[in-house]
Write a structure and sequence with these properties.
The protein is an alpha/beta fold. The chain has one domain (about 15-165): 5'-nuclease (Rossmann fold, 3-Layer(aba) Sandwich), CATH 3.40.50.1010. Helix content is about 35%, strand content about 25%. It has helices spanning about 15-25, 35-40, 60-70, 95-105, 120-130, 145-150, 160-165; strands at about 10-15, 30, 45-55, 75-80, 80-85, 90, 110-115, 135-140, 155, 165. Strands 4-3-1-7-8-9 form a six-stranded parallel β-sheet, with helices on both faces. It has a two-stranded antiparallel ribbon with strand order 2-10. The longest helix has 13 residues, at about 60-70.
Length: about 180
C-alpha cells in the first residue's frame, strides 16, 4: 500500500475494453466507471482522466455510455473497430495509452492504469524508472500476475465487486465532474 495524499497529482488511464470484458466474463455484468474513478482518484488532484474506447456499429447505445463517461469528468479517446477481410476484429489501444502515459508523466506524481493487461509491464517498469508511482486498478482474476507484482499498488476491484458493477447498460452519472 502506498501513501495517497490530497495534493498528489494523478493521471488515470482507463482501458475500457479490458475492464468491460473482465466484468462481462467474470460477473456477466457491467463496470460502474464512476465508482472505479472515485476509488482510483482517492481524493487526490486529477490532472487528466482518459478513457480509451472503440466505436462499433451500435452507435446509439455507445453514445449514451460515452456521454456518461464525459459527464463524470473522463476525457474520451476513440477509434473505430477494425474489421479485416478474414473477419478478424481488432480494437487495441495499448500503444496509445502508453504514449499518453509517458507524455503526461512529467506533470504527475502517480499514474493509474485501469487495466489488467500484462502488455503494460514495460510501461510500468519505464514509468517507475522515471520515479513515478504506478498504480493498477482492475479485476484480480483477469489481471496479469506480473503487473500486480511490479506496480507500486494494486487495487483489486473483486474485493468489493458489487460496488464496482452495475446491471444496467449505463454508468452512474455524478453531479460534479470529479469525485470528492
Amino acid at each position: 500500500m502506498i501513501m495517497k495524499y490530497k495534493d498528489q497529482r494523478v493521471a488515470i488511464f482507463f482501458d475500457i475494453q479490458n475492464l468491460y470484458h473482465s466484468a462481462k466474463n467474470l460477473y456477466q455484468s457491467r463496470v460502474d466507471f464512476y465508482e472505479v474513478f472515485k476509488k482510483a482518484a482517492a481524493n487526490r488532484k486529477i490532472i487528466r482522466a482518459i478513457a480509451y474506447v472503440v466505436k462499433s456499429d451500435t452507435v446509439e447505445k455507445e453514445a449514451s455510455f460515452f456521454d456518461a463517461l464525459e459527464n463524470i469528468g473522463i476525457e474520451l479517446k476513440m477509434k473505430d473497430l477494425q474489421v479485416y477481410a478474414n473477419g478478424l476484429k481488432k480494437a487495441d489501444w495499448d500503444v496509445g495509452i502508453a504514449v499518453d502515459a509517458i507524455r503526461l508523466a512529467p506533470s504527475v506524481d502517480s499514474i493509474i492504469l485501469a487495466t489488467g493487461d500484462g502488455d503494460f509491464l514495460p510501461l510500468i517498469e519505464y514509468l517507475k524508472s522515471l520515479g513515478k508511482i504506478v498504480e493498477v486498478i482492475s479485476f484480480g482474476h483477469n489481471t496479469s500476475a506480473k503487473i500486480k507484482e511490479v506496480a507500486d499498488d494494486f487495487i483489486d476491484l473483486e474485493k468489493n465487486s458489487q460496488k464496482f458493477l452495475i446491471k444496467s447498460p449505463l454508468i452512474k452519472k455524478s453531479k460534479s465532474k470529479f469525485p470528492k
